[in-house]
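Researcher: Next sequence.
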Amino acid sequence: MAPQFLIPPMPNGDPYYRRNSLPFPSLPKDHDFPFSVASASSPNLGRIPPSRALSSISRGDESAPTSEIETALDSVVKIFTVFSSPDYVLPWQNKPPRQAWGSEHTFIQVTKPGLATKYKARVLSAGHECDLAILEVDGEEFWAGMRFLELGGIPFLQDEITVVGYPQGGDNISMTKGIVSRVEPTQYVHGATQLLAIQLEAAIKPGYSGGPALIGGKVVGVAFQSQTGSENIGYIVPVPVIERFISGVDESGKYTGFCSLGLSCQPIENSHLRDYFGMRPEMTGVLVSSINLLSDAYRFLEKDDIILEFDGVPVANDGTVTFRHRERVNFDHLASMKKPNEVALIKVLRKEIECKVNITLRPLQPLVPVHQFDKHPSYFIFGGLIFTSLTQPYLHEYADRYSMLPRRLWQLALEELPRNAGQEIVIISMVLMDDITEGYGNLAALQVRKVNEIEIQNLRHLYELVEHCTAPSIRFDLDEERVIVLKYSEAKTATSTIRARYNIPSIASADLIVSAA
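Model: Next structure:
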């Protein structure tokens, strides 16, 4: 989980993360870029501040060892955290605190190689989709003697890579070697995102994740996950993804996400299908199946369009584009490397006529969030009914707790697209037992569709409808044609009793209360 870049403070105490003004990815492959990296689930850091910061950062004792490996060993630090994750089924409370390595944190400390002193750190920015984060550590003492690594390029197949980290089973820094076996877009497990990754034939054990991957003393990536069921297949985040993450923080002051066209496309390799849509023999492309209503593509593209080119790069019938010699990647990769609000020129075939459209790219959020790492779940309790927004963490926790899956909710999470900005799927996460909820106990894990015949848009909308209700009774229409009706005044009274009985600090999460104030 989330490798980190550790950024030194400027002399005035402000964090320094300004990069060279050149746009990414136009920086040269060997751009001097001092480096500190670690993972949300691991203790490792490499070392990456910008070249302009070199004058303000001590390079330590010039008589220190200068070999590539020794420099790398001096550049990797260990992260200790204490963290407490939310309880998504009972969203007003946290689970008990646990100690771990990485940045999913309540409290973070780092240590330098070979030293016992721990320094307090904090998260400046976290990009969960790309499994990276930026940490800050104050104090010149910590940065004294730290050595610097440079970013390299994307390794080639069969290149040998050294990964440095703190694998579990010991306290000291360690190294492992592996061979590059594949470079292609891969599912990033931590953020459930498809981004470019480097597959390595090496044992990336827990603890190596977050450490720098090196060739010739330069960083070519950051280790971040291993293949399930295999002890010798690991993955590293490549330099283009690292640069894209940092450039977003540099330019906007926060994590900006990775862009998407917002399309679902079908390969068009079948000759009958190609003939049906009037494709000439020399044409290649993919068929647009669906379009996210919140994307800019929705304004310009239509279902059954054929995507022929992306920024002048031909799209093959299987949806891939040329990457390097003998290598191809899905054309989605080109969109993911764009910065928010950059424009892509898309060539399409529509009803046998070719045309070009300019589409503005931006990150697109799914209807059901895949993670909630940086926030607590929102909730509202009324008459023993716990309302919350559907998230994938809730679904995972529900499955762990009850050894079953709410199949309809999983289907919504995987397939449903948002119809408008701010839309959420609101559910009853649990029914707290009370006289007023008698007979409703089996209606948990169902979607709430309407309140008093008004279709709800999100949890805040439901909260406002309930709080401002003037009718003697309130009706909730649920999925599967289920209905809950409560007498409003009795339910309000019961809410206070239930809150005291179950020791609930508030009937609603702070974000709902503040928004209603």
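Model: The chain has four domains: 66-143, 159-252, 259-363, 379-513. The mean pLDDT is 83.
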